[in-house]
Specification:
mainly beta; binds copper (II) ion; Cu-oxidase_fam; 7-stranded mixed beta sheet; binds CU-O-CU linkage; 6-stranded mixed beta sheet; 4 helices; Immunoglobulin-like
C-alpha cells in the first residue's frame, strides 16, 4: 500500500487542538494527509464502468474533543475519487440516505443536461439516481458535489464533495507524476469554523454576505496535514471546495513550481510561477520539485480580489494560512523532466459568434434571480458564443458554466494571463473588469432540460445568483424588437 493511501481514513495520526492551526508558520503538521480512496468500479454487460455512491450522515473526530457530525459519500466526510478514461461509458448509482433531498452534480463534465445533477435532478431521501454518459473531453481534474436549489452551500460544507479524474489514454501521462496518492496527490481545500462543541458552525452567511469563512483548514478532511514526498517531483491536484474563500497558493520559501493544468485539462505548456489563485470551484494542477530531506509548506497568501474595499473584509485581515506540509525523505525516486508542450492551446473560432452579456450585481445576474421555471435563453448546438461577464459591484464573484469548458478571451480588456490560457469552467470576475469568454456548445440538445450558469461562491449561488440555458437545434429565435427579452 503506498504511503499516502495508508491513512485514507484520516484523523488517525493525531488529534490536535486548533489553537495555532493554520496561522502561517505556527502550524504543527501532525496528521498524515488522508488521500480519498479511488472509487471501485465494475463493468456491466454493456461495457459501462459502474460506480456506487451513497450519501449519508456520519461523524468524524477532526481534532481533540468531540466528534463532528458530518455528511459524506461512502464514508464520513468527502467522497472517493472517481476515475475514468476519455471514451468510456460510465454509470453512477447515487443513493441518498441523508434524510433530505439532494442532487449530485458532475462539475466540469460535458454531458447531457438530464445527467448533469443540477437542481432539476433531485434525489429524494431513500431514493437512487443513476446517470450515465460517455466521457468525451481531455484529461482533467473535475469534481462532484450536490446542487439542490438554495441548499448547495450547506450540503457541500457538511462534507459532500469528491474528485472525478478524467484520463486520456492517448495523451498518456506525458511524464507527469501520476502515481495516485504517492506523487499525484489530491488536495481538496476547505475552510471550516468549529463551535466550542467541535461541530461545523454557522451554517449561515457571515462576513457581510460572502458566506462562511472558516479559520481551520481541512485538506482532504485532514487538519494540519503533512504528506511524505518520495520522488523528486510531486503533482498536486488543487481543488478549492470552499464555500466562499479565495486562496492564493504558494510555498513558504517562495519556490517556483510549474502550473500544468487548470479546470478543464492541461495547459498548452507548463507555466513557472510562485502563486496560483483559486476561487471556489476552480482547480489547478501544479508540479513541485523537492530535494532530499527538504520540508516546505504550501500556504495561501491574501488573494488579489481586485477590490481593496473587500480584500480585508473578505479575507478577515491578514489571512496567510498554512495548508499542507511536504516532507521529503532521505532518498527520492527520480522523476522524468517536465515536457515543454502539454496540450493544444484552446483556439475557438469566434467570427460571427453570438455575444451575450451577463451583469453580476446584488446577488442577481442581469437583474434576475434564479427561477426554476424560467429558462433564460437557448443556445444552438454546434455553435460558439462569446459571453461577456461584468461584476458591476465591489463584491467578489466568480462565474461557472455547466456542460462546457470555455476559453478566456480577455479580462478587463487585457489578454488572459498564462493561468487563464487553458480550458476553464469557472473564472474569477473582478469588479469592473469584464471577462470575455468563448464557449462552444457541441451536442446533447434537449429543449426541456436546462444547464446552469452561476456564481460559485456557494452562498451567492443559494441566494439564486444563477440562471438556466438549454442547448437546442437552433437556439433562440433572433430578437425582433429591442425591448424583447427584458423582463423584470
Ligand atoms: Cu460546481 Cu453549478 O456547480
Ligand atoms: Cu458571487
Amino acid at each position: 500500500v503506498p504511503a499516502g493511501l495508508a491513512a485514507a481514513t484520516g484523523g488517525i495520526g493525531g488529534l490536535w487542538a486548533t489553537a495555532d492551526v493554520n496561522t502561517a508558520g505556527k502550524t504543527r503538521f501532525v496528521n498524515r494527509l488522508a488521500v480519498p480512496p479511488l472509487a471501485p468500479s465494475r463493468r456491466d454487460r454493456s461495457g459501462r464502468r459502474v460506480y456506487d455512491l451513497r450519501a449519508a450522515v456520519g461523524s468524524r473526530r477532526f481534532r481533540s474533543g468531540r466528534a463532528t457530525v458530518t455528511w459524506g459519500v461512502n464514508g464520513d466526510y468527502l467522497g472517493p475519487t472517481l476515475r475514468a478514461a476519455r471514451g468510456e461509458k460510465v454509470l453512477v448509482n447515487v443513493r441518498n440516505e441523508l434524510g433530505e433531498p439532494t442532487t449530485m452534480h458532475w462539475h466540469g463534465m460535458h454531458l447531457p443536461a438530464a445527467m448533469d445533477g443540477g437542481p432539476h435532478q433531485m434525489i429524494e431521501p431513500g431514493a437512487a439516481w443513476s446517470p450515465t454518459w460517455t466521457i468525451d473531453q481531455p484529461a482533467a481534474t473535475l469534481w462532484y458535489h450536490p446542487h439542490p436549489h438554495a441548499r448547495t452551500a450547506l450540503h457541500v460544507y457538511r462534507g459532500l464533495a469528491g474528485l472525478f479524474i478524467v484520463d486520456d489514454p492517448k495523451a498518456g501521462t506525458l511524464g507527469l507524476p501520476s502515481r495516485y496518492g504517492v506523487d499525484d496527490v489530491p488536495v481538496i481545500v476547505q475552510d471550516k469554523k468549529f463551535t466550542d462543541t467541535d461541530q461545523f458552525s454557522a451554517e449561515r452567511p457571515m462576513m457581510g454576505g460572502t458566506g462562511i469563512l472558516g479559520d481551520a483548514i481541512l485538506v482532504n478532511g485532514t487538519l494540519a496535514p503533512f504528506h511524505e514526498v518520495t520522488t523528486q517531483r510531486t503533482r498536486l491536484r488543487l481543488l478549492n471546495a470552499s464555500t466562499a474563500r479565495v486562496y492564493d497558493f504558494g510555498f513558504s520559501d517562495d519556490r517556483p513550481f510549474a502550473l500544468v493544468g487548470t479546470d478543464g485539462g492541461l495547459l498548452p505548456a507548463p507555466f513557472h510561477t510562485t502563486r496560483v489563485q483559486l476561487s471556489p470551484g476552480e482547480r489547478a494542477e501544479i508540479v513541485v520539485t523537492l530535494r532530499p530531506t527538504e520540508r516546505v509548506t504550501l500556504r495561501s497568501y491574501p488573494p488579489d480580489l481586485g477590490t481593496d474595499l473587500w480584500n480585508s473584509r473578505f479575507t478577515g485581515g491578514d489571512d496567510t494560512l498554512d495548508i499542507l506540509e511536504l516532507c521529503a525523505g532521505h532518498v527520492l525516486g527520480s522523476s522524468p523532466a517536465l515536457p515543454g508542450v502539454l496540450a493544444e492551446r484552446p483556439d475557438l473560432e469566434t467570427a460571427g459568434a453570438v455575444t451575450r452579456s451577463f451583469e453580476l450585481g446584488g446577488h442577481r445576474i442581469n437583474g434576475r434571480r434564479m427561477d426554476m421555471s424560467r429558462i433564460d435563453f437557448a443556445v444552438a448546438k454546434d455553435t460558439t458564443e462569446i459571453w461577456q461577464i461584468t461584476n458591476c459591484g465591489n463584491t467578489p464573484h466568480n462565474f461557472h458554466v455547466h456542460d462546457v469548458q470555455f476559453q478566456v478571451l480577455s479580462v478587463g480588456g487585457a489578454d488572459p494571463t498564462p493561468e487563464l490560457s487553458g480550458w476553464k469552467d469557472t473564472v474569477y470576475v473582478p469588479p469592473n473588469a469584464p471577462v470575455r469568454i468563448a464557449v462552444r456548445f457541441k451536442d446533447y440538445t434537449d429543449p426541456a432540460v436546462p444547464y446552469m450558469y452561476h456564481c460559485h461562491l456557494l452562498y451567492h449561488e443559494d441566494q439564486r445568483m444563477m440562471g438556466q440555458f438549454t442547448v437546442t437545434d437552433r437556439g433562440d429565435a433572433p430578437k425582433t424588437s429591442p425591448s424583447h427579452g427584458h423582463h423584470g
